[in-house]
Amino acid sequence: MQFKDLTRQYNTLKTEINRGIEDVITSSDFILGKPVWDFENLLAEYVGRKHCIGVGSGTDALVLALRAYDIGPGDAVFVPDFTYIASASCVALVGATPVFVDIDPDTFNICPVSLKERIESIKKSGELEPKVIISVDLFGLPADYGAISEIAKQYKLIVIEDAAQGFGGKIAGKAACSFGDISTTSFFPAKPLGSYGDGGAVFTDDDIIDRRIRSLRAGGKSDYDKYDNIEIGYNSRLDTIQAAVLIPKLNAFKEFELDAINRIAERYTKRLNGNVITPYVPEGFFSSWAQYTIRFKCINEREHIKKRLKENNIPSMIYYPRGLHQQKAFVNRNLHDDMFKNTVAATKTVLSLPIHPYLQEDEVDLITSVVLGE
Ligand SMILES: *Cc1c(COP(=O)(O)O)cnc(C)c1O
After folding, report:
1. Strand partners for 285
2. ∠ at Cα 167 (196, 281), nearest 5°?
3. What is the pLDDT of residues 238-295, one digit of tens each?
4. Which among 68, 319, 367, 368 would be 20 to 30 A from 160, CA to CA?
5. Distance of CA 272 to the CA centre of its chain
6. Contact by Cβ (8 Å): 63, 303
7. In the predicted model, is pLDDT for residue 225 greater than 90?
8. Kind of pairing, strands 285-286 and 75-80?
């Protein structure tokens, strides 16, 4: 069994995907070809934003979003402590300072109470200027944008939604990638909408930000002459071949994959509920299940079940084994485990089980039987 079975998806979508790739090769339109523009339009429409800009990766999408708002040295950017490194490395890459915030113990997303405390303490110390909140839609579940927007308004902060895992999620019918001032996602193959290589996108409703990101992704070119560069940019465009792969994948995602993965998650929860801690989806929230992450009472129980799954050839993953404050890249910042109690508890108790839209019911039943020791 595979953790994410991309082969089953390919077998289902093979004809369209192969045709799309072949068309790109035949046309030799490799850089910013028509499929990129088509895909950007489809994606913007799907999430309900005015603009979508296809870029080289989810990490680049975050860097470009920060650059578009002129975030740099001296600026504090608040980031949840429990996430993939890119949510914070993007901050360091533009020269700003990531400030880690503990998570909500039930949703694993940024905790609004801790966020407010960290903003206050940064303001009090006076060394950095609070500028941005990067809120992550972890494991497919949107963060609490109601509470986050309130705080952002109070302290005049920009909200960047890191929806690398959140694509397809919703709050009260409103789609992920439409929250906050600007949103980003990733098309890394294992994400909810994955390509066959690296890719990402930025979403904005602001025409000026849109133009700036289109310039920054192509070396900082000007609108009138691509060899007249108005600022220092990057080489970070979504490949045409990747866009051609993503168009049929987006169709499948809309038509049946998102529903299928929700049925899988429901079956997991029904079978596991009461025996382990199953994922919490607050009222009105909808997840795209980038991960199905359960929790145990202690690390020993987690390790025991992980081993039993492995003995039965069932892969499982620990997302994440450490908080950002525990990463070597971020040591020497005077950060202590007791500032991130919920993150530290999560690192010791979480376990992500195989989930993807092509997982079969009998496979879910097998996995849950092994977890429950039946
Ligand atoms: C995967 C991921 C990213 C980065 O995406 P890449 O395309 O791999 O650069 C950023 N944030 C989160 C939360 C992610 O899971």
Report:
1. 171
2. 135
3. 999 999 999 999 999 999 999 999 999 999 999 999 999 999 999 999 999 999 999 9
4. 319
5. 26
6. no
7. no
8. unpaired
User: Is the pLDDT at 208 greater than 80, yes or no?
Assistant: yes
Strand partners, 103: 110
Beta pairing, strands 129-136 & 158-162: parallel
The CB-side HSE value for 236 (13 A sphere, CA atoms) comes to 26
Interval 287-306: pLDDT, tens: 999 999 999 999 999 999 99
Residue-level pLDDT at 346: 98
How many whole angstroms from its chain centre is CA 266?
21
Is the CB of residue 150 less than 8 Å from the CB of residue 168?
no
Interatomic CA distance for residues 32 and 218, integer angstroms: 10
165 lines ligand 1 (CB under 6 A): yes
User: How far is residue 256's CA from residue 4's CA, in Å, rounded to a whole number?
Assistant: 17
- Asked if 109 and 144 count as a contact pair (C-beta separation under 8 A), the reply is yes
Supply 132's token pair.
């941005």
Cis amide prior to 320 (ω within 30 degrees):
yes
84, 110, 196: which to mutate for ligand 1, most atoms within 8 A of CB?
Answer: 84
Task: Tell the residue nearest (CA) to atom 1 of ligand 1.
Answer: 164
Residue 162 Cβ contacting ligand 1 at under 6 Å: yes
* 275 alpha carbon – ligand 1 mean position (Å): 31
Identity (one letter) of the amino acid at 26?
T
* CA 187 to ligand 1: nearest atom: 7
Residue 279 structure tokens: 């994922």
The dihedral region occupied by 39, where left means phi > 0, alpha psi between -120 and 50, and beta the remainder, is alpha
**Alpha-carbon distances, residue 319 vs 82, 146, 290, 337 (angstroms):** 9, 26, 11, 18
Helix, strand or coil for residue 14? helix
Determine whether the shortest distance from the Cβ of 83 to ligand 1 is under 6 A.
yes
Q: Maximum Cα–Cα distance for the chain, whole Å?
A: 67
Q: Which of 58, 317, 90 is nearest to 192 (CA)?
A: 58
* Sign of the alpha-carbon dihedral angle for 367, 368, 372, 374: negative
